[in-house]
Amino acid sequence: MLNSDLDMRLEPRIKELYELHKLRAANIDWSYHEFIPWDKAMSFKRVPWDESQVTLPEGVIIAIETALLTEVNLPWYTTHLDYTFKNSMDVISDFVRTWTSEEDQHSSLLETYLLVTRNVNPARLHALRKRVVETGWFPEFTNPLATMAYTSLQELATLVFYNNVARIAGPHDPDLATLLRRLAKDEALHYAFYRDTVKAHLELDPNFIVFFEKVIINFSMPGVVMPDFEDRMKTIAIEANYGPLQFFDQVLDVVVKYWDIANLQPTTEEAIAAKNNILKYHGRLKRLKDRAEARK
Ligand SMILES: [Fe+2]
Ligand SMILES: [Fe+2]
């Protein structure tokens, strides 16, 4: 009987993935301060915030603010991972600490950008930020393998989100596009670690698919706890280049193919059902996407 813990036989492989992560991360420029257009900064005491100072289109602002309010809940993401992997391999604890130190920069970079460029009302933003962190986040699943699949999807979704918004933001502010692409690089490395840990398990035993089914089918971003999340995502889908179509094409379809779910050969009844349910869900979203594209 399989259990939902990471498989100890894969410890050497996961150590390899962590070493690879550190190597790649060492090649990234960590001078985050250089991504902020400091020349635009003014004291809020001398020049109070006013709506007329806003320069970006509303959809882009909502996208950046939503990303920021998702990243600020890092203390809760770390809490969840720490709880989930408490009795797991040491290398996972090491990775979670490295990961936290990298994620730690994301919300401050986005917030500093918004404050310096005055694209948001700072008092409103800080009240929202407090409310989101106070609400916290702790998902229903706390088993290690489900968490690995969830974080794979979440990191890839975040990476795609930053790159797609960068494309829309670029013509309005090239500095913002550069900043978003820098964040996307971190998310790409995170995604690779989680994704390949999942892949290694499926290669070792395709019956592990049972632990991935629910999180794949019920995936929603951890930002779902913030006020007006649904409205925000609708606006972002229309105005900032990230919605259900992009989720299917650039996230779900990508992991389903990378994990080669269609060709897995699980042997238990439960695992065969899990595989089929994922493929059914994938097929349903694909049909919705094809219909939406035909309408365009
Ligand atoms: Fe992040
Ligand atoms: Fe990340």
Q: Can you give a write-up of this model?
A:
The structure is a single chain. The chain is an all-alpha fold. Helix 1 packs antiparallel against helix 7 (174-204). The termini are far apart. The longest helix is centred in the middle third of the chain and has 31 residues, at 174-204. It is globular. The model has no long low-confidence stretch (mean pLDDT 96). It is built from eleven helices and no strands. It has one domain (43-295): Ribonucleotide Reductase, subunit A. Residues 103, 155, 158, 186-187, 190 line the site of one fe (ii) ion.
Quickly list its features.
single chain; mainly alpha; Ribonucleotide Reductase, subunit A; 67% helix
Report a brief summary of the structure.
By secondary structure, the chain is an all-alpha fold.
Outline the low-pLDDT stretches: none
Strand and helix order: HHHHHHHHHHH
Average pLDDT over all residues: 96
Q: Architecture, CATH level 2? A: Orthogonal Bundle
Small-molecule binders: fe (ii) ion
CATH classification, class level: Mainly Alpha
Which of globular, elongated, flat, extended, rod-shaped describes the shape? globular
Oligomer: single chain
Number of domains: 1
Q: Specify the number of helices.
A: 11
- β-strand percent reads under 5%
